[in-house]
Amino acid sequence: MIISKSLVEKTLNEALSTGADFAEIFAEESYSSRLSVMDSSPKEALVGRQYGAGIRVHFGKEEIYITTSDLSEAGLIKAARAAAQAKAGGQRKNTSAHIEEPMTTFDDLLTKSKMPWDLTRDRKFQFLKNLDRAARAQSTLVSQTQPLLLEKVQKVQIANSLGVHVEDLRTHYRTMLEVFVEEHGKRESFMKNEFSVTDALFYENIPLVDWARETVDKALTVLRAKFAPAGEFPVSIDNGFGGEIFHEA
Question: What is residue 205's DSSP assignment?
Fold first, then answer.
């Protein structure tokens, strides 16, 4: 839990103090990582954590929203008071806000899996270097590769004056391989990616040689493809699909 149940209740009650019809708090703590390789060597290693909270109050159809990165009691009460004082002078309408212990919306599959911070950076870079090596081995026309690994873990807690109190753990892991090929002064590229929403080690199950071969083959296909003919051509659009075509146009 990011914020204790008692502090959530104090914060909501402070937000309701000048007559708001509804109050809500959204708290977040997230971890993100971006690792990449270029020229067969590590290029990026960006890792960080973010946290904060947003407090929303409704006065009829009017909405006030305040954010803070201070999750201490003093910081949250200050933010809730600022939201309430946006309509100062009113009297509390609701009874005190009471919430239960948070309901979790995720299962043991996430909590029992390894988290990205449990894995060494060397292990992750070794995967990216292996992917780079596998791609370069597919063709002498490969001039550059850009393997990339993205990791994000987001924990959120949401509660409101109606008694709702939930928490969620959201994980997203993605790896990408972009391959550049060159021939006779012409350069093209192709990118392939895989992802998982549960397993931080999903990339170790990727068949690297097959994955690299497919990516390089598609890059070579683009490199050697003929240019599309110029001119006016008839276009047939199926009913219901035209919106996407016109949007892209």
Answer: G
Strands (E), the chain: 22-38, 41-59, 62-68, 103-104, 142-160, 165-183, 186-196
Q: Distance between CA 84 and CA 64 in Å, rounded?
A: 8
In contact, 216 and 179? CB cutoff 8 Å: yes
Buried b vs exposed e over 157-166: b needs ≥16 C-beta within 10 Å? bbbbbeeebe
DSSP character at residue 117: G
Looking at the DSSP assignment, which residues form a beta bridge with residue 145? Answer: 179
Tokens 């994000």 correspond to what residue?
152
Find the Cα–Cα–Cα–Cα dihedral 72, 74, 79, 85, rounded to 10°: 160
On the 0-12 / 13-18 / 19+ scale of CB atoms within 10 A, 216 is buried
Yes or no: say if 204 and 123 are a contact pair by the CB < 8 Å rule. no
pTM: 0.81
User: What is the token pair recorded at 149?
Assistant: 């690994």
Q: Kindly report, residue by residue over 58-76, the tens digit of the pLDDT.
A: 998 999 999 999 999 999 9
State in Å, rounded, how far the first CA of the chain is from the last one. 47
Could you tell me the pLDDT band of residue 108, with boundaries at 50, 70 and 90?
low
Those residues with Cβ within 8 angstroms of residue 225's Cβ, 6 or more apart along the chain or in another chain? none
- The answer to whether the Cα torsion of 77, 80, 82, 88 is positive or negative is negative
- C-alpha separations of 42 from 11, 48, 88, 145, 176 in Å: 45, 18, 55, 12, 15
> How far apart are alpha carbons 162 and 165 in whole angstroms?
9
